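Lab meeting, item 3. Inverse folding demo.
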């Protein structure tokens, strides 16, 4: 019997959703960083086995939004939840239970979709502390399963997959075996550049950045890429460029290195920075950057 199903990976910002997706697929399809709201789009990852196909959706962290972009991110996560055959609620077990967790669980109340609690970062807790946390979480919501893992160290992922398969129904193979993600190469290139900005910059810069791929020319030996980094304020542009261009050069070199590995060719990357005031609250600008929706 061939099984298939759609699984939404949901949770608060920085719980480890993208790290889990990459670990399950054994391939990097979603960018990661220590900064909240790294994921801005639902990113699909396809795991095809001999007798099953699991379609995961990595979602933006559910949070209290402070601008139009934040509202869009939450709606993206809710859509994935509502359309899934199975939901993974992933938590960072080293963080205390808070209002964000409470809000997420209230959003799941009444759902008929099986919901797993994925308890992440178990490698960072003592056995006694972990047992205490697991018993506490059991009282908060009627989870179908509670599975402790370490996404970063890939601990207990095989068990997670086996239990997941037991919940999936007989179905069709939705996507070809060669397909790993629904996002095209241009999207992935833009995300890798944004990831390097997230790692290299601090404070308000990461949340205020969008990346637009403006041009890409390729031949057998190398690829030329030109990309625009958008920020909200002139001061942010100055920080991003850095003293004598040091920051933007550091970002460019880090992105070039990963893109060369990913694309298998020498990469020449040009980066420009432009100010678009308050772009996260401007519906037309959000639409242009691919973050808009019908609501």
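The presenter then showed the designed sequence:
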């Amino acid at each position: 019997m061939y099984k298939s199903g759609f699984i939404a990976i949901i949770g608060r910002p920085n719980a480890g959703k993208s790290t889990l997706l990459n670990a399950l697929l054994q391939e990097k399809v979603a960018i990661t960083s220590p900064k909240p709201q790294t994921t801005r789009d639902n990113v699909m990852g396809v795991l095809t086995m001999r007798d099953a196909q699991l379609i995961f959706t990595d979602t933006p962290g559910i949070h209290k939004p402070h601008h139009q972009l934040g509202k869009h991110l939450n709606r993206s996560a809710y859509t994935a939840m509502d359309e899934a055959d199975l939901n993974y609620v992933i938590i960072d077990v080293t963080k205390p239970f808070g209002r964000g967790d409470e809000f997420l669980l209230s959003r799941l109340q009444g759902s008929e979709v099986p919901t797993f609690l994925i308890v992440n970062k178990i490698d960072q807790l003592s056995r006694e502390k972990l047992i205490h946390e697991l018993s506490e979480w059991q009282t908060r919501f009627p989870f179908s399963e509670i599975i402790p893992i370490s996404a970063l160290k890939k601990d207990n992922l095989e068990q997670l997959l086996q239990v997941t398969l037991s919940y999936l129904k007989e179905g069709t193979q939705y996507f070809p075996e060669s397909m790993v993600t629904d996002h095209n190469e241009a999207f992935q290139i833009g995300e890798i550049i944004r990831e390097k900005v997230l790692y290299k910059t601090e404070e308000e810069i990461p949340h205020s950045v969008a990346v637009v791929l403006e041009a890409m020319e390729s031949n057998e030996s190398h690829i030329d890429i030109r990309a625009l980094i958008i920020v909200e304020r002139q001061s942010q542009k100055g920080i991003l460029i850095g003293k004598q261009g040091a920051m933007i050069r550091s970002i460019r070199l880090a992105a070039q290195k990963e893109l060369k590995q990913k694309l298998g060719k020498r990469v020449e990357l040009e980066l420009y920075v432009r100010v678009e005031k308050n772009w996260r609250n401007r519906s037309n600008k959000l639409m242009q950057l691919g973050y808009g929706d019908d609501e």
